[in-house]
Amino acid sequence: MTGDPPLTVLLQKATLADLQRFCAITAASLREGRQIAVASNEHSQKLMVWLGGLMGAGILSMHGLLAAAPKAMRLTVLIPWIAGILVATLAGLLAGELADRNGKQHFNRISMLELLQIQTDKERILENLQLIMEPAGLANDHALNRLFVATNSAFYLAHIFFIVGIVAAVTTMMVLGV
Predict the structure, then answer these.
(1) What proportion of the chain, given as a percentage, has pLDDT over 70?
(2) 37, 56 in Cβ contact below 8 A?
(3) Is residue 150 part of a domain?
(4) pTM of the predicted model, to two decimals?
(5) Which end of the chain has fewer CB atoms surrounding its CB within 10 Å, N or C?
(6) Can you tell me the distance from the alpha carbon of 65 to that of 176, in angstroms, rounded to the nearest whole number?
(7) 162: containing domain
(8) What per-residue confidence (pLDDT) applies to 1?
(9) Is residue 170 in some structural domain?
(10) Using one digit for the tens of pLDDT, what is the confidence trace for 37-52?
(11) What's the domain count of the chain?
(12) Is residue 1 in a domain?
């Protein structure tokens, strides 16, 4: 065994027609995966809008209920939701940028796969397939990976602020007897 990944070994033994067919199947699979990713992104964006709206409604409704409460107590309730709205907005902005960059990367991969279907040089197909399929190839974009982590962090942090705000509001209402 040479230590090559199994897919690489199989592709090296494939005929030109098999490689071109593999490129077509891979492109179709990536397109389907992209549709799922786009739907997931749209759902996440809607969730952030709703979460920000709910926190805004919580601020407006609690402001009147807590008018008699000490300022520190009111801030304990309002700050998590204010921070949550800001973080939800940040998550939405980061998700939009992430979607754009993912779209460009997807376009590059699909374009290369489409071009490889008409390529007649088997070695060139194998070389480019390796760029597309291997983790160290086209998909290895450190800036994109950092953006993905930042987006997910903001997404979940917005949820945490929402929950902390609810707990603070309920606790404050119980303490005040409202």
Answers:
(1) 91
(2) no
(3) yes
(4) 0.78
(5) N
(6) 10
(7) 6-176
(8) 44
(9) yes
(10) 899 999 999 999 999 9
(11) 1
(12) no
Rounded to an integer, what distance in angstroms lies between the CA atom of residue 95 and that of residue 47?
12
CB neighbour list of residue 68: distance below 8 Å, 6 or more residues apart: 176
**Domain membership flag for residue 101:** yes
CA distance 70 to 161: 21
**What is the Cα–Cα distance from 111 to 61, expressed in whole angstroms?**
52
Look at residues 95, 97, 96, 112 and name the one whose alpha carbon lies nearest to residue 30. Answer: 112
- Average pLDDT, whole number, for the chain? 87
Closest CA relative to residue 91, chosen from 32, 148, 151, 40:
151
For tokens 């962090």, the residue is 153
Say how many Å lie between the first and final Cα of the chain, rounded.
Answer: 73
Per-residue pLDDT tens digits for 99-111? 998 888 889 889 9
The residue count for the chain: 178
Q: Which amino acid, 88?
A: A
| CB distance 55 to 163 below 8 Å | no
Reference 85, options 73, 100, 93; nearest CA is: 93
Q: Beta-carbon neighbour count of residue 165 at 10 Å?
A: 25
CA distance 70 to 66: 8
